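Quiz preparation item.
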């Protein structure tokens, strides 16, 4: 049985494979006990991300992976969440941790509007 695959199927398979590869190289680099091997894994991971990006752009350009434009409101919401997360996890001296934690509590209890 001789089965041929469409260009779309090949590109989608390549993209899925690239995603799995980056996941595996990321895990390997996180779990390396030796710095030289870890650095090698990180270099390979960067290369794999570049490959994945190339495949994604090709797949998207051909219309096989449609990516609708994000609404401005959703972009703003995502930015606010990121900024708030950075604020909540901001490193402080040990004596100031209680003040940061009180801010978090007040924020959660009062529902401060993150847009203001």
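Solution:
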């Amino acid at each position: 049985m001789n089965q041929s695959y469409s260009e779309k199927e090949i590109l989608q398979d390549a993209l899925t494979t690239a995603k799995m590869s980056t996941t595996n190289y990321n895990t390997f680099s996180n779990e390396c006990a030796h710095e030289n091997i870890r650095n090698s894994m990180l270099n390979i991971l960067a290369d794999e991300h570049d490959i994945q990006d190339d495949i994604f752009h090709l797949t998207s350009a051909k219309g096989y992976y449609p990516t609708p434009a994000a609404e401005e409101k959703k972009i703003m919401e995502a930015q606010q969440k990121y900024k708030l997360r950075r604020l909540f996890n901001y490193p402080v001296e040990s004596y100031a941790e209680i003040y940061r934690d009180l801010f978090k509590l007040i924020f959660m209890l009062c529902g401060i509007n993150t847009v203001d």
